[in-house]
Amino acid sequence: MKQKFLLLFVAAVTFTASKINAQFVDLSTGKTVTLVKHSGNGMMLNTETQRPVHIYVNTATNDTLYGRTGEIINGKVARNANGGFSYNEDGDYIYSNGEYRLKRESDSTGYSKKMQADGDVKVKTDDYKRKVESDGDVKLKNGDDKTKVEADGTIKVKEDEFRAKADDEGNLRVKDDSTKVKIKADGNIKVKDKKEDYKGKVDENGKVKEKEGEVKRKVKKDKEKVKTDK
C-alpha cells in the first residue's frame, strides 16, 4: 500500500514539475525559449534577450499564446505576407521590431501617429504628413508639397508645377511648367526650355551644344562656332 502511494506521489510530482518547466517555442524564430512574466506590464519576456515575445507555443499544453497578455489565442493566428505569424485582435497595440507599440498616439497639439499591421507608420501634424512604409519607402507631405524617398535611395519632389527626381545612380531630373533639366551621373547635362525655345547639352568631355530659336552654338576645346539658320 505504501509503495503504491509512493509511486502515485512521485508520478504526481513528476507531472506537476513537467507543467512548471514547460517548454516554450517563440514562433518568430522557431526556437525554444525560457520566458518570464514582467512584474509591471505583464508581458512575457525572453530571459536571454530580455525582449518581449510576440506569439509563442506552450509545448506541454499545445496552446498558442499572445506575449503581451499571456492570453490563449488558439485558432486566431494567421500567416502574413512575409511568411511569419500575426495576431491582429489586440485593438490597442501592435508588435513591431521586437516591441509592443500603441497603434495610435495623439496629443492636444494636433499630433497623431498610427501604426498598421503591415508595418506602415503614419504621422500627422496639422498640414504635415509622413508615412513610413514597411518596405522602407518614406512619403512626406507638407501643405501641397510632396516628397518621396524610396528604399533604394531614389528621391522624388513635387511642388506645384515643379518636379525633381534623383535616383540611386546619381542621375537628376528637374522639371517645371516649361523647363526640363537632366543631369546624369556621368556628367552629361541636357536643358530644354519651351518658352525660350532653347535647348542645351553638355557632355562628359565638356563639349557644349546650344540652340535658341534659329541660333546654334558649339563649344569644343575652347573653340566656339555660332550658326544662324536662315
Characterization of the model:
The structure is a single chain. With 230 residues, the chain is mostly beta strands. It has two domains: 2-97, no CATH class; 102-228, Outer Surface Protein A, domain 3. It is built from one helix and 25 strands. The protein has a 15-stranded antiparallel β-sheet, with no helix packed on it. 7% of the residues are buried. The model is unreliable at 1-21 (pLDDT under 50).
Write the layout of secondary structure elements.
Blueprint: H1 2-20, E1 24-26, E2 31-33, E3 35-37, E4 44-46, E5 55-58, E6 63-66, E7 78-79, E8 85-86, E9 93-96, E10 99-102, E11 104-106, E12 111-115, E13 121-125, E14 128-132, E15 138-142, E16 145-149, E17 155-159, E18 162-166, E19 172-175, E20 179-183, E21 189-193, E22 198-202, E23 208-212, E24 215-220, E25 223-228
Antiparallel strand pairs: 1-2, 1-5, 3-4, 5-6, 7-8, 9-10, 11-12, 12-13, 13-14, 14-15, 15-16, 16-17, 17-18, 18-19, 19-20, 20-21, 21-22, 22-23, 23-24, 24-25
